[in-house]
């Protein structure tokens, strides 16, 4: 029974670790999206600046600037989502680490119990001799 509980706890810890790993991957992907949006926005703004300088016309450059601003706004929105999800993940990692610590304590307790049982069995066997 204790072994079954131990195995169930171990399975839960492994499942939690896999969930954390998946979320870390998703957050890395989201961070890449944020960086791409920022880079693309910067390119649009740079293009607008080039058009404004070459044509001496802010009117011609405005669509590029607007596109750049829109991409930056999308990046900010994604960055906010990223921060929220990262905070949630940090909490999950903290909880997971506490669960690991608790499991390690159970392992130590089981080890001590096993040693006690072994000593009792050895003592019993000596009595039988």
Molecular structure report:
It contains two helices and no strands. 97% of the residues lie in helices and 0% in strands. It is rod-shaped, with a radius of gyration of 29 Å. The protein has one domain (2-128): Methane Monooxygenase Hydroxylase, Chain G, domain 1, CATH 1.20.58. With 129 residues, the chain is an all-alpha fold.
Specify the CATH class: Mainly Alpha
CATH topology: Methane Monooxygenase Hydroxylase, Chain G, domain 1
Rounded average pLDDT = 92
Percentage of helical residues? Answer: over 70%
Structural class: mainly alpha
Oligomer description: single chain
Number of domains: 1
Q: Beta fraction of the residues?
A: under 5%
As residue ranges, the low-confidence spans are: none
- End-to-end gap: 31 Å
Describe the global form: rod-shaped
Proper CATH architecture: Up-down Bundle
Major β-sheet, in short? none
Cα Rg:
29 Å
The string of secondary-structure elements, in order, is HH
State the helix count. 2
Q: How many strands appear in the DSSP assignment? A: 0
């Amino acid at each position: 029974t204790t072994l079954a509980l131990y195995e169930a706890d171990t399975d839960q810890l492994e499942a939690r670790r896999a969930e954390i790993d998946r979320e870390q991957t998703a957050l890395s992907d989201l961070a890449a999206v944020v960086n791409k949006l920022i880079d693309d926005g910067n390119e649009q703004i740079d293009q607008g600046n080039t058009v404004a300088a070459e044509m001496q016309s802010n009117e011609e450059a405005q669509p590029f600037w607007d596109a750049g601003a829109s991409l930056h706004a999308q990046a900010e929105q994604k960055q906010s989502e990223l921060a929220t999800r990262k905070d949630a993940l940090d909490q999950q990692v903290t909880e997971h680490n506490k669960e690991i610590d608790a499991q390690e304590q159970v392992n130590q307790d089981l080890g001590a119990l096993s040693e006690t049982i072994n000593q009792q069995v050895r003592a019993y066997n000596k009595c039988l001799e």
